[in-house]
Amino acid sequence: MGATRTAVVIGGGIGGTVTAMALARAGIEATVHEAHPGGADGVGAMLTLAPNGLAALRIVGAEEAVRAAGHAVPGVVMADGAGNRLSEFHGFPGLPATHAMARADLYRALTAEALAEGVKVEYGRRLVGAEEGRDGVTAVFADGSTAHADVLIGADGIRSTVRTLIDPSAPGPEYAGVLGFGGLVAEDVASAGDVAPAEPGTMYFAFGRSFIGWWRLPDGQVCWFASLPRTEPLTWAEVQRIPAEQWLARLRERYVGHVPGERLLAQTAPDTLMATGPMERMPSVPHWHRGRLVLVGDAVHAPSSSSGQGASLAIESAVELARCLRDRPDHAAAFAAYERLRRGRVELIGGNAAATNRAKAGQAGGPAMPTPEQMFGPVHRHHIDWHATVPLEVQ
Q1: Whose CB has fewer CB within 10 Å in the chain, the N or C terminal residue?
Q2: What's the pLDDT band for 130 if we cut at 50, 70, 90?
Q3: Which residues of 33-43 are buried (b: 16+ CB within 10 A; e: fewer)?
Q4: How far is the C-alpha of 13 from the C-alpha of 272, rounded, in Å?
């Protein structure tokens, strides 16, 4: 049994909430401190949770609640921008289907589960510093309040404050060269059948000079997501200040001749457009931990939305960190074991997403079409054995 008994978790999003739930199962009392005064339920658009993410949620008892918040999309069809179907995949036997949902719905489901299990969440607590001592670490917040624990865990996202406390020279997020957008095609239009193929339970990806993905929602609408190359990045706030009509016009110009991107965009009303801002990823972070501080989730390994793995990897890391703190004799040994367990996997997935981003930005042709096993097998089958003790030497 490890020596860690208490933890301060910075960030009440997906990674922070699951971290606190996993720590509770490891016998460690954790309090979540969220900067937003009312939580982060309005942040983000749509996302997917892959089988490996759902398997990790099963460990903390949240899988069923999260499944209920979304809908299954077990199938994937890959195509080119001329409408030619290149490959398809319908899931691996024995694994749950990938689920799609609004990020806000995932946030609410996880928060409800955490609160029901007794996890404490403090809102309006923006971290500004941390002071380490022989008996623990004290988090200092902008309102002057403090919180003391054995360890401090940074689950505070891609612009992490904890990351800069660990290493002031740590890299920040890397811009992928594209802005992300999503939108909806109304059910009556989508049902006409001449906009895009959209069989229920199937997600479609069409590459070419431009990329677009889409799938049918349970209410019959078709949800799409697309990329607009741009050399100079804009912040999310700057993107929001440009009217949706202008963005939609630029997207329609970009997707002229694309099948079915041109039709999907033509049938999208401006009031359904979702501008998600610059597509970003975290490059390799040299230092995942220092002293009693450690990073988890997007704060250390955001792979960009192109991976389809951002939320799933954050959940995996939360569970593995709790497992290491449970089993290793002290926080230093736990943090080292956690990094060894996670770094190789998350950086491989992040690197593959970076290659996809280059294709979306028009810097390379469409991605090679690997087999479903090559594309999804090792990622989706990843399993954490919660009941196994973390070995002394993690390979």
Answers
A1: C
A2: very high
A3: bbbbeebbbee
A4: 25
Report percent pLDDT > 70 for the chain: 92
Q: Rounded to an integer, what distance in angstroms lies between the CA atom of residue 334 and that of residue 23?
A: 13
pTM above threshold 0.90? yes
Residue-wise pLDDT for 199-218, tens only, equals 999 999 998 888 999 999 99
- The whole-angstrom separation of Cα 356 and Cα 177 is 11
Q: Tokens for 236?
A: 């999310």
Distance from C-alpha of 151 to C-alpha of 4, rounded to nearest angstrom: 7
In this prediction, residue 373 carries a pLDDT of 78
Write the CB contacts of 104 (distance below 8 Å, at least 6 apart in sequence).
41, 42, 43, 44
Is the backbone of residue 78 left (phi > 0), alpha (psi -120 to 50) or beta? beta
